[in-house]
Amino acid sequence: MVSVIAYSVLFFIAAFGNLTVFITLFRNRHRRSRVNLFIMHLSIADMIVTFVMIPMEIGWHATVSWRAGDVACRVLMFCRPFGFYLSSFILVAISLDRYFAIRHPMSISDADKRGKLMLLMAWIFSVVASTPQVGDDGAPSGARCGVAGHGVGMRGCGSEIALGMGS
Predict the structure, then answer these.
(1) Distance CA 3, CA 51 (A)
(2) Are 80 and 53 in contact (CB under 8 A)?
(3) What is the mean pLDDT of the chain?
(4) Residue 117 is inside which H or E element, if any?
(5) What's the pLDDT at 122?
(6) Which are the contacts of 67, defined by CB distance < 8 A and separation ≥ 6?
(7) Count of other CB atoms within 10 angstroms of residue 107
């Protein structure tokens, strides 16, 4: 029950913060800058975590079972790591952009194109890294997201990921 409350509080804080950032940047999109573009994509990635992963964790911790079927399980198994990968890769892209801005300050003409390319690569790498989660790991239909041992578990990539309900 403590984890449900903690995830719920985290959900509201993350939703408020990320929606505020996204709406502010979206309203001021006429002020186009690379940094704003990076931050907008980072808030989108964090909203994927906030609105997909956190409610999924709350549901699993509250019910200790999976009731949405195999297709929903596969979709959510893809989305669960996707948000984390995307956030991480966008942070790497922001770091690289700042590195290039400091190391090569006179190459401003390439910076916008390079920034958009890095964002595109962050999205592509995130999709590629998350795709193995939806593959057929030999689990029977419906067993991918089910009760595993003492805790709720998810099967992906041929392994069991325990979510900590009594394990």
Answers:
(1) 17
(2) yes
(3) 81
(4) helix 108-130
(5) 97
(6) none
(7) 11
108-130 vs 69-103: helix crossing angle, rounded to 10: 150
Cβ–Cβ < 8 Å for 2, 20: no
Residue carrying structure tokens 């993350």: 14
What's domain 2-162's superfamily in CATH?
Rhodopsin 7-helix transmembrane proteins (1.20.1070.10)
Give the tens place of pLDDT for each residue, 32-74.
888 899 999 999 999 999 999 899 888 888 887 777 788 888 8
Q: How far apart are alpha carbons 20 and 29 in whole angstroms?
A: 14
Contact (CB, 8 A) for 40 and 25: yes
Q: pLDDT tens digits for 129-142?
A: 998 877 766 655 54
How much is the pTM?
A: 0.78
Write out the two tokens for 76: 């959510």
To the nearest 10 degrees (0 to 180), the angle between helices 69-103 and 34-48 is 160
98 contact partners, CB below 8 Å, separation of at least 6: none
Q: Is the pLDDT of residue 116 over 90?
A: yes
Q: Cα(52)–Cα(126) distance, rounded to whole angstroms?
A: 16
- The residue ranking higher by pLDDT, 117 or 31, is 117
Specify the residue for token string 């903690």. Answer: 6
**Which strand (E) or helix (H) includes residue 130?**
helix 108-130
